[in-house]
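FIELD: query
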Amino acid sequence: MKTTENYLAEIKEIRKMMEESSRFLSLSGLSGVLVGIYALLGAFMAESIIYSNKLFGWLLGANVVFDLIYLAAIILFLSLLTVILLTYRRAKKAGTRIWNPGSRLMLINLALPLISGGIFILIFIFKGVYEMAAPGTLIFYGLALINAAKFTRQEIFFMGLIQVSLGILAALFPSLGLLFWALGFGVIHIIYGTVMYFRYEYKSNK
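FIELD: result
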């Protein structure tokens, strides 16, 4: 005859299965750290482009705007590649699938604000309103994280709130936009990735 402990264990197992089917829990904390490092390097390069235009001018005819867009595309590509590879490695090690209902829901809810925000920001950039770039990317990225948080770790929600807050500050102080961008995409990602790694991955890697 089953005891109370047996029933509780079964309930916990059912709850775990339901959570795994509706939420994506294999995000890699180390990828967050690396993405933060990429962002800080990107911010340093962007500052050099804006104030001295020495790093990439030879590639695109010394056009500062297109140099910055080119740099942003490189950082985005490296970040996505890193997240996909490290998350895949973690999911494989845990014996879970990277592509499941939870990951699909998370990506859909993440992509909608990011794509619409990206189009919105590009419109302003090509109209010459460059001050919208830093606050816009932070705010829309933060909203995307908040929107996707219900399908992954709850920590993502709080990181989204921080990104939105930094975006608002960047809009209030446009001369410090690059600094707030570096804090949001660089420092906050490194802190978040470190916390996530030691909270969910460190013990399994020992």
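FIELD: remark
Confidence is low (pLDDT under 50) at residues 55-61.
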